[in-house]
Fold these 4 entries.
Entry 1:
Amino acid sequence: MNVDSVHRSLRERQRQERQELILQAAEQLFTEKGYYDISLDEIAKRVGIGTATIYSHFSSKEDLMVAAIFERALQRVALHIQELAAIQQNAVEKLTASFQFLISDDFFLRRAQLYYSLGNSPEAQKALNSRQSSISENARIFSETLAEVIEQGKIAGEFRQDIATSTMLKAFISIVRAQSVKDRLAGNYEDVSPAELLQVYISGIAVQATTTQ
């Protein structure tokens, strides 16, 4: 490798590291304050760079938010779900660990809030369209990992065979979303704990033990 190639490789690595720092700061700040109360100047200040540097990585504020909240965050969540699925022993433990992570992360709630804050912005739609392939791929990994866990539970005799895996998956994601938004809705649901909600779900999909007389 010649000197020019080494320099190009170093510059590219530095660029990637800087972009990751921008994405980290953007995700934190957009999550903390929302879309409208954050400026690119504030994100740049958090990273320790000039605002113009952000524009060398992202075309607009909308593009940065889509990259940070939808593309990068979904990738992070998908990878973590894969790690949990590999660590835990049985399907119930894997779903429980995934549920606890997802509600603690408030992933679905944050995405929904920021998505609606974009409204019908042409720039936001352009950013979503340009990153749709990556977003869809990470969503596929996320869904397929959970579906594989459910299938493992069926094969092991933990989960019922008479309920489609797709139905179990949709129900699981629904209770995660419900748990994420319940405290923001009218009314008080504190009497229903996350553990109880998950137990209702697990009881519904689990193979019930039979007793002999």
Entry 2:
Amino acid sequence: MAAEFLSTALLLFACTSLAVGFYKDQLFGADLGAGLISNAFGVGMTVTTLVYSFANVSGAFMNPAVVISFLVIRQIELFKAIGFIICELLGSIVGTAVMYAIFPDLSHAVHMGATELGPGVTPAEGCSIELLLTFLLVFTAVATADFSGDLRQMGRFAPMVVGHVVLVDCIIGVPFTGASMNPARSFGPAVVGGYWNNQWLYWVGPISGGILASITYHMLFLSEDIEKIEKS
């Protein structure tokens, strides 16, 4: 439980700090496209590092949508899932609060690094984008997890794969929704800064996309793998 709290706190600190840095770069006339790519790279590499660091302790979920997705296909116990989600949400608040304590003025300028809809993007469109981005993320996470034994026994390169998917998702989604893919990512800044606009879509979209991804993978591949394991 503590690992999920700490890893999510570190993730939120990194994500919100990157948002502050991105905003500061724009003040000095930095190229928007280059800033987007560097921001996406920072988030992706942060996820990779945290998964490598915490996967053998708790699985390094850091995301309620991922936890629920694994719960749906019975790869995590209910009470453990509830505990993980609570710790992740608390960690998201602490991570954002630490960033705010370090950058109080700039934090307000970027709404605490909150995920927000881009110009002209409707809530329905934003929810759909979050669903699709999270589908790709969770499908990859489920595919790279080793279900033949302990959930935490992941392939050596799995954290890199997951981190690269996050990087790509950020490049695609940041201009439209901020590319949350994670209710905890949006929850921390909302609590610390009070920015609750369209908060619902950052829960409905990622959780729906994650559940669809895990069920799809389970139906296509996982059920056959489990059958083979049980027979052997």
Entry 3:
Amino acid sequence: MAEGLNRVMLLGNLGADPELRYTQGGQAVLNLRLATTESDLDKDRVRKERTDWH
């Protein structure tokens, strides 16, 4: 299997403390609740925000 490095940058706000757990095989898994907000102007030039949870 080819090895490589993937890099991801997530910018947002945490909605809760990170949760660290381990699989039965000892692999660490970290769960995050991350909110990102996007803002845009509507047709009347009023700023609208939309928050998505990931």
Entry 4:
Amino acid sequence: MDGARATDGVIADAARDPMADWPTGRLLSTASRLIEHTWQQALDGIGVTHAGLIVLHLLDSGPASQKELARRARVQNQTMSRTLDRLERAGHIERIAAADDRRRHVVSRTPAGDEAWLAAHRLEADVFPDLPDESALRSQLLAIIRSGESARWSPEDVEPA
């Protein structure tokens, strides 16, 4: 498709919807903020923050250390500590001293954490719009994230697939 044809559709769309001519970055940023706000409101109803939900998701594969959770979530250890404190106070996780090193704690989900995780999955269907090809959108979003991740995160920070 040549440049004129590619922009003709965008210009025609812009006549109907002024947002149609926004740069892609602005569209992504706006969509992100709107979804994040709506998602956080929904999560508030089950007593979990977005950061807490990320931890509950990471614990779906089993217990892990705080350091491992921080690495996989791509946050600082201190940030993970605060998130774990909130989850522990809410009864969603427990920290148990590791058998081989009492200074290290193993974090696992509690039954209440399992319930919160399942409730969040049910909420997701209500929060996010139905899309004609969600898997294509997910693939495109992953491509965008991966194209920028090398500048932000080192290879050892990347969670294995």
